[in-house]
Every structure is written in C-alpha cells, then in structure tokens.
Design goal:
With 379 residues, this protein is of the alpha/beta class. The chain has two domains: 247 residues, HUPs (Rossmann fold), CATH 3.40.50; 60 residues, no CATH class. Helix content is 41%, strand content 10%. Helix 2 crosses helix 9, helix 7 crosses helix 10 and helix 7 packs across helix 11. The longest helix has 19 residues. The protein binds adenosine-5'-triphosphate. The site of adenosine-5'-triphosphate (ATP) has 16 residues, from helix 2 and strand 6. The site of adenosine-5'-triphosphate has 16 residues, from helix 2 and strand 6.
Length: 379
C-alpha cells in the first residue's frame, strides 16, 4: 500500500507513483497477488474482471453457470461470502448472466459467534436486495454446536461442524430448488487444502480439490468463483468498498490441522507471493491414474436419510448416532458404521428431498424464505 509521501535517498520529495494500469490516477494499492501498484478504481476493475474470468472459464472453458440458474450464495456474514454476494450481484447485472441469486445461511448454533454474524447477513440481505434463507443445525439435526462441544469437547468439533454444514447447505438449497451453490472459498483456502491433502496422503481429495465446480447432491453443483482471488485482496476490496461484514474467528478454535497449513502458506507467501497460485496450479496438474479412480467407492444414497454417501449410511447420520448415544470423541470412530438400522428412540435426519421445480413460484412464495424486503429482487 502507498499513498504516503515518498522521499528519495537525498531526502527530496518523490512524485507520487502513477497507477500502472490507467497511468493517470495515483497508485494507492500494491496488489498482494502481482505486486502491481494500482489506483483504487483500477483495483476494483481488475479484481472484478478476474472473478468474471473464473466464472466464464470454469474448469472446461464452458463457464460455471447456465443462464436462468437459481444460485444460492453460502452466506456466513464473513468477508469472503460478503464480498462474493456483492461481486456476484454486480457481475450478474454487468454481464447479464441471467442468474436468480439467493443468500443461504446455516446457523450452526454457536452463541456469541454465528448469531452475531447472521445479523450481518440480514443487513446484507437488505443492502443487496437478495432473498435469504436460514437453516439451523438444531432444526435439521436436533443439535447445536454449543451442545455438541459440551459433549465432544473442542478438539474434534470441527469435524462435526464441517460434515453437518456441507449437508445443511445442500438441504437448504434443495428446499429452495437451487441448481447451484457458490461459496467464498478463496485462493488461500484452496492452496491450504492442496497442502493438507498432500500431507494426509488423501489422493481422492487431492484429485478434485482444485476444481472450480464440483457436483454436490444429485444434479446440484457447487462452485468457488474466488478460486484465484487472494484473501488479502478480498479484505482490501471489502475495506475500500466499505462493505459490512463480520470479522471474528469462530470461538470453537479453528481446525488445528488447517491452521498449520495456513501458517506454512503465509510463510511461503511472504517469501514469494506467487506461492499460493503455484500450489493451486500444482494441484490442477495432478492427475489420478485410472486404476486409482476405478478403485474408489461409488456414491450411493444413505440408507437412513437418503443423502449421498460412499458408505451404507452417510457421515452425518453416523456422527449423529454417536452424539445421540452419548459418545464423546469416540463418536468420530463410529463414522464408518455400516448398519442402516437406527437404534431405538434415536433422532434421525429428515429424508433428503429435492423440490420439483414449480416455475410459477416466486421467491417470496417459497417456504422458509425471509419475507420480501425493500429492493428485493423477486424471481
Ligand atoms: N454458516 C454458513 N452458512 C452459509 N455458508 C457458509 C457458512 N459457513 C461457511 N460458509 C461458506 O463456506 C465458505 C468458506 O467458509 P469458511 O468457514 O472457510 O469461512 P471463511 O473463509 O471465513 O469465509 P467467510 O469470510 O465468508 O466467513 C464461506 O465463504 C461461505 O460461502
């Protein structure tokens, strides 16, 4: 960043650095990704254009969206998803993608964290005029993260939260008859995931973690339009645009393993900023041998709740069974339980169902959607 008065070695005032793109305005930002010194307006333009390029390219050059798609933005109230909601609304208009956008928030039930960040999402709902749906763990699983942490402790709670959130997003989206979920995962998140998968030797995940788009439940897709956006640039964008976002870390200590990968990545970035993109490119060029692909378990429907799973019952049902049985950390080890029979009296996750599209239904008529607000775009 600059904007400061620069002095030469001889102590003379140096002229301000001009923007390296428009060459007229004064450079105010040094892009963390490229080192380019640019003015504020050019920074907005390159940031938005790079996201647009990710969107129109996709993994196969065909683009990630189809015209007329109903797209849910996974909205946590944090910087990434807030900037995503802002930029996607803007690009949808600027380039006429023809998307029907929604905000979808999962309330994990973390007092003093998610309740506050959801207030931010509600503010975004008004600011961007997008319909909002909130689905809670309590509603879906009968457990809040506060209660889960009471039972399993802080050490492994991220496993529960991650598995439950993934499924909750799909289920919330299914209730809205969504075609496509987008999340604010950024380049740093993806590079961390590549590193974690290498360190764990998780070949299957390594093979797919750099894709912009992956298939979610049945025909629903999941995309990461910020795949190439650096976290530092997202923060700068939010700051200069004065966007409203919630910036506190989760109170139940972030995933320690990811934390190590993050620290390592930040060290690499400090030495060589391109390290983040380089690691993503390494992941992209990694190819699984056909023999390995063939050896992978095919996906099936969970025998209890119908959600997709590579085992007889899905991970969420297995974790829920452990919780209901009053297990603590050993609940995690039960995750491969192969029995489809639910022990007596235990809670079950509702059957997974997708709405059949009723094209005559407007956003305001779908159950569970926050009521229309001033300026809200109704489909
Ligand atoms: N509770 C939630 N409800 C809806 N979407 C969520 C929720 N939590 C996370 N997501 C989605 O997953 C993405 C990555 O989540 P992660 O937990 O890594 O948070 P993050 O990197 O801090 O992102 P953000 O700044 O948007 O909170 C978010 O950008 C958002 O799109």
């Amino acid at each position: 960043m600059s904007g400061l008065i620069k002095l030469s070695l001889a102590g003379r005032i140096m002229p301000p650095t001009p923007c390296s793109l428009c060459e007229t305005a004064r450079a105010l930002v040094k892009r963390p990704k490229t080192g380019q010194q640019v003015c504020k307006e050019c920074f907005f333009t390159v940031f938005e254009t790079e996201v647009h390029n990710t969107i129109i390219q996709g993994d196969d050059g065909q683009g990630i969206f189809k015209r007329g798609e109903r797209v849910a933005i996974g909205a946590s109230g944090g910087k990434d998803s807030t900037v995503l909601a802002h930029v996607l609304s803007l690009l949808n208009q600027r380039y006429d993608y023809g998307l029907d956008l929604f905000l979808l928030s999962i309330d994990e039930g973390i007092t003093g964290y998610r309740d506050d960040s959801l207030e931010t999402v509600k503010q975004n709902q008004v600011e961007y005029g997008l319909p909002l749906k909130i689905l809670s763990y309590d509603e879906l699983y009968g457990w809040t993260m506060d209660r889960i942490v009471q039972q399993v402790g802080k050490k492994n709670n991220c496993t529960f939260c991650g598995v439950f959130r993934r499924q909750a997003l799909d289920r919330g989206a299914a209730q809205l008859d969504i075609d496509h979920i987008v999340t604010g995962h950024n380049a740093d998140d993806i590079a961390e995931t590549v590193l974690m998968n290498i360190m764990r030797g998780d070949i299957a995940r390594l093979g797919r973690c750099t894709a912009v788009t992956t298939r979610s439940e049945d025909t629903m897709r999941r995309s990461k339009p910020f795949k190439y956006a650096y976290e530092k640039e997202i923060v700068m964008y939010a700051y200069f645009k004065k966007l409203t976002y919630f910036s506190t870390e989760c109170i139940y200590s972030p995933d320690a393993y990811r934390g190590h990968a993050r620290v390592f990545l930040k060290d690499l970035e400090a030495i060589r900023p391109s390290a983040i993109i380089d690691i993503i490119h390494s992941g992209e060029t990694f190819k699984l041998e056909q023999a390995v692909v063939k050896g992978m378990k095919p996906l099936q429907s969970c025998a209890r709740c119908g959600y997709m799973s590579s085992n007889t019952i899905c991970k969420a049902c297995a974790l829920l069974q452990g919780l209901e049985a009053g297990l603590d950390r050993s609940a995690l080890k039960q995750s491969q339980d192969e029995t489809s029979v639910l022990p007596d009296g235990q809670r079950m996750i509702p059957k997974y169902e997708r709405l059949r599209r009723d094209v005559s239904k407007s956003a305001s008529q779908i159950d569970g959607l926050e009521k229309p607000l001033k300026g809200m775009a109704i489909s």
